[in-house]
Amino acid sequence: MASPATTYEKLAAELAEAAARGNNVRPTGGGTKARWGNPGPEAQTLSTKGLDALVEHNPGDLTAVVQAGMPIERLQGILSQHGQMLALDPPCPGGASTVGGVVATADSGPLRHRYGGVRDLVLGIAVAVADGSVARAGGKVIKNVAGYDLAKLYCGSFGTLGVILEVAIRLHPRPAERRTIRGQTGDPAILLAAATSLSHLPLNLESLDVSWAGGGGALLARVAGAGLAERTAATRRAMTEAGLEAGLEAAEADDVAWAAQREAQRCDGAEGMVVRVSGLPSRLADIVAATPPHAGIVGRAGLGISWVRFPPASAEALVLAVKELRDRLAPMPCVVLDAPDAVRRGAGAWGPPDPARAALERRVKERFDPLGILNPGIL
Questions:
Q1: How do residues 74-107 score in pLDDT, each as one tens digit?
Q2: Contact 110, 300 (CB under 8 A)
Q3: What pLDDT shows up at residue 145?
Q4: How far is Cα 374 from Cα 312, in angstroms, rounded to an integer?
Q5: Where residue 279 falls among pLDDT bands split at 50, 70, 90?
Q6: What is the rounded average pLDDT of the residues 271-276?
Q7: Cβ atoms within 10 A of the Cβ of 60, count?
Q8: For residue range 223-270, what is the model confidence (pLDDT) as tens digits?
Q9: Which residues pair with 212 in a beta bridge?
Q10: What is the per-residue burial (b if ≥16 Cβ within 10 Å, else e) of 144-169?
Q11: pLDDT at residue 2, as a whole number
């Protein structure tokens, strides 16, 4: 295997050469989401690992320009030296997840409650397109000119429109201190009511998550920034009034609790399975009711995004579990993330396609990748 390209021009030239030979291309960073989407045909891997530099950091403007192959954990370490952070905390298996991979898959973690998703933090982008050219969109300041925001088009595009080379991102101050309050219950209706109540209170929470497994659930609220003591007390009081058994997480257990929430969004795709469910926050009780007792749930309580994690089982059993989940929760999208290839083939990663949306996606794909060589079949 050839060494990863270390310049934008070299990677773009490799992409053009693959196109000229008629080869399919699979862009890759850390490889932590290589099994997401529908299994596609054989493809040549094009790695961004050689593009791993912090191009520019403007602490006063709270912006940075980062190459796609930089591991997100390493970037956070650099930014923390300036009291700043990229407000994205998706699962990061083995510390290998890269900035480009997170943008391409629009992955996220508990910080999404306060700071939004990938699309809210990307200001500009540079990509290699199939004809071998390097295209740029957006800028590197928070206020850009009006017009088509092509940078956001690449967020969640799964490498089907071009290979992300560089991203301009919005940063945020890193809180000096955080506190987490956990409220527990065995009643999904009480959990939903508490989550709804806290999401509408002016507590300015950094994260608000739920978890459910084995007939019991918890609501986790994280407070950060100014007025920490007062807002922590108010959050705990609100949980108690909503019917939860609320308590403050010990300082040494705080990060552990949130790491567990992130880790539950992933599994070993060779055996188990994770399905992401998107819908209104008010449907949380329905998701709990539709999830079998042997599976677990974590999710963003105020956003309506949940991850249902199934333990290892046969491919036939997992395909049936996906079908039942989709039938019970329709029309909520139930997307298969980590799963064996046989499950993703049998159930389809994305579920039944919407004809109008599929037609629009095909037209966009034809415009940006007319030869259809970039991750064909994944969507």
A1: 999 999 999 999 999 999 999 999 999 999 999 9
A2: yes
A3: 53
A4: 31
A5: very high
A6: 94
A7: 6
A8: 999 999 999 999 999 999 999 999 999 988 999 999 999 999 999 867
A9: 217, 297
A10: eeeeebbbbbbbbbbbbbbbbbbbbb
A11: 66
Locate 11 and state its tokens: 């990677």
Given this model, what pLDDT does residue 191 score?
A: 95
Enter the tokens of residue 35. Answer: 């099994």
Tens of pLDDT, residue by residue over 286-296, are 999 999 999 99
The pLDDT value given to residue 365: 94
CATH numbers and ranges of domains, the chain: 8-173 (3.30.465.10), 178-260 (3.30.70.260), 273-347 (3.30.70)
